[in-house]
């Protein structure tokens, strides 16, 4: 009897302990689940992409090369390389063609001036920019970029949308500058053509536009001698001219005598009777 009673009591104690243990395990599982969710949220929040600026791009260096070289340090996202200007590209192509003598088609590859590389995690981008800056781009001995150095800089708080806006702004500025240069060239050309036409009309008015020593047709005011000659050529003009000269000479003599002898100069009214009327 005692054994049976002890067995029943042990069974009751086990039954009472089982729900307690289950209740204790449930909050622990919930806490673990919450911690895992918080860690996942923190991981999602902490993973922010970062952009590294590539200032030097050697010839024949392509986006595939930079992706292969930098993927060993972290996950690489978008890559953009800025191609060189069209004028520079045409000059290089012409130089390559002249070097070959025009006998065969010149081999010229498109080059780039600068680039941007996006990493999935900005911490990786910072680490790559700090560790690879000013180091050889090619680690192998036969690499064509062995003697070129990385020129990397991490762009703080720089996003891909900023890059798109920057490139769009540069394109707009380039178009505006091109329009201004074309308008200025057109104004200069029009002014030159108008000047040429004006010169042709001016030379044609002289009679012969081909004569280099032709006389210029222009009107000039008559001089004082020409005016006196015209007055003298009129009827009675010589007599009037002679009397006017005599009157001027007499006036000058009277003023000289008045200065010598201290006499007052003759009044203008006294000179009136000296005038002789023309016949």
From TrEMBL:
InterPro entries annotated for this entry? ABT1/Esf2 (IPR039119), ABT1/ESF2_RRM (IPR034353), Nucleotide-bd_a/b_plait_sf (IPR012677), RBD_domain_sf (IPR035979)
Acidic residues bias: start-end ranges:
1-11, 27-40
Ranges of Basic and acidic residues compositional bias?
Answer: 12-26
Gene Ontology MF terms: DNA binding; RNA binding
Keyword entries, A-Z: Coiled coil, DNA-binding, Nucleus, RNA-binding, Transcription, Transcription regulation
Provide the primary localization: nucleus
Q: Name one GO biological process term.
A: small-subunit processome assembly
What does UniProt give as GO cellular component?
A: nucleolus
Q: Where is this region: Disordered?
A: 1-43, 231-251, 260-279
Q: Where in the cell is it found?
A: Nucleus, Nucleolus
Q: Which PANTHER family match?
A: ACTIVATOR OF BASAL TRANSCRIPTION 1
The family assignment reads: Belongs to the ESF2/ABP1 family.
Q: What is this protein's record name? A: Activator of basal transcription 1
Q: Which organism is it from?
A: Hipposideros armiger
Q: What is the lineage of its organism?
A: Eukaryota, Metazoa, Chordata, Craniata, Vertebrata
What gene makes this protein?
Answer: ABT1
